[in-house]
Amino acid sequence: GAVDADCEVLVLGGGPGGYSAAFRAADLGLKVVLVERYATLGGVCLNVGCIPSKALLHVAAVMDEVSHLKSAGIDFGAPQVNVDQLRSHKDKVIGRLTGGLAQMARMRKVTVLRGVGLFVGSHHLQVEETTGGGQDRTGAKKVVQFQRAIIAAGSQAVRLPFMPDDPRVVDSTGALALKEVPKRMLILGGGIIGLEMGTVYSTLGARLDVVEMLDGLMQGADRDLVKVWQKMNAPRFDNIMLNTKTVGAEATAEGIKVSFAAAQEGGKAPEPQTYDLVLQAVGRTPNGRKIGAEAAGVAVSERGFIDVDVQMRTNVAHIFAIGDIVGQPMLAHKAVHEAHVAAEAIAGELKGDEKLARSAFDARVIPSVAYTDPEVAWVGLTEDQAKAQGIKVKKGLFPWAASGRAIANGRDEGFTKLLFDDSPEAGGHGRILGGGIVGTHAGDMIGEIALAIEMGADSVDIGKTIHPHPTLGESIGMAAEVAHGSCTDVP
Ligand code: FAD
Fold first, then answer.
1. Do 234 and 373 form a contact (C-beta atoms < 8 A)?
2. Is the peptide bond before 491 cis (omega within 30 degrees of 0)?
3. Is 469 among the residues known to form the active site?
4. Does 439 contact ligand 1 (Cβ within 6 A)?
5. Residue 408: how many CA atoms within 13 Å on its side-chain side?
6. Residues of the chain below pLDDT 50
């Protein structure tokens, strides 16, 4: 058929993966077409994920912080919440960032095509134009021919099949739309996304229940970190239902009536409960089966993931994939780094630049952060993993109850812990393998531990690095000193 446009690199999807790949490829001198079905760039992260959730979490954290000041003699009284204004504040934050992306695309001469992309051959993508704020199709179709393609089509929230189609049942996108504040809210799934949204709604006035199939909230993080968060947040919850499955839901005049079952045989199931709002946060599923990948010969797993090598190359040599669609962890910072690798590998091939052509994803670790209050952040090996894998570690733990800054802030519930290699081969000078922080601003600090792991630092390197006093970041240096014993002044 006729070709309407051609390019060196086609990028499918305008999220953090897609726009980062497009911008890097353009910076490296390639002709780039970026296809996105929505009106704005930024994908899930900017429009309905990382950014709007953090705009709301910031507001919630300030509200909670202010309420802590009562004991310091400052009382602002009960908050007056204007949900409409809060929503438009959040939308303004998004608008500023998506507007910035559009400008950056123009500056780099990246052609942005608005529409739903579908592979129709190994070098051709059909784009069906979309319009409005959503993805309404106009029927107008174009075909783009490409030399290389980068698939960055992302993921979407999982929907439980038995959930009624009702405005009182939402996923994270619906929760971020912030229509109103419910009295009783059920968070279905005790992961980061559900607990972040729960934090916002509960600070705004909702009572929370959470139901989780496994035996703990915030899976992936060490239990000692989560325990601190859970103790501080207990007042937000009426029921924390662990080891519990959600098995049915019914829309009634009073609310959404949800029924539960024990996840394990012999367990006790909670009674059915009725909620004003149910947030489904049971995970995200990749969009791999919706992009016509088979027409390009790209292999997609049953669940919709696309397998890639260290250069982000799929089974088809000239087609790459990045971000949520290639697997866990589904995080924006992972997508961005993968994007740069794919764009560089392609530029290396097309421009004959051997150094660029060797670009590969070789991050040792990818940090995770729950932007709850307090925040929970971890990176690299966890204590639970060390135990399970039989890896001998030396732990340095610094409780914030001994941090001047944390006490001054009135938030000394947290701690910082570092894990060092304590295998016989390490000879007592083991490198850092992982770390975790629970406390205010934990997410802003975890990057230092990630850097230490990437650089192969040991406890002396970290402990002897002068951190400014009094800061929360100091706790990282202190934790390292705890691990090596503060009297080992001779390196
Ligand atoms: P996406 O952001 O999903 O972008 C894919 C894009 O492709 C979308 O814009 C989509 O419209 C488009 N697309 C898909 N198919 C087609 C098609 N056929 N044609 C045209 N366009 C198409 N991560 C963090 O790191 N930190 C956080 O704090 C964080 N918070 C989150 C909070 C929430 C509520 C949610 C839901 C997610 C959060 N995430 C967070 C995860 C983060 O949003 C994702 O990891 C990230 O957006 C993945 O980027 P991506 O480029 O792979 O895909």
1. no
2. no
3. yes
4. no
5. 7
6. 487-491
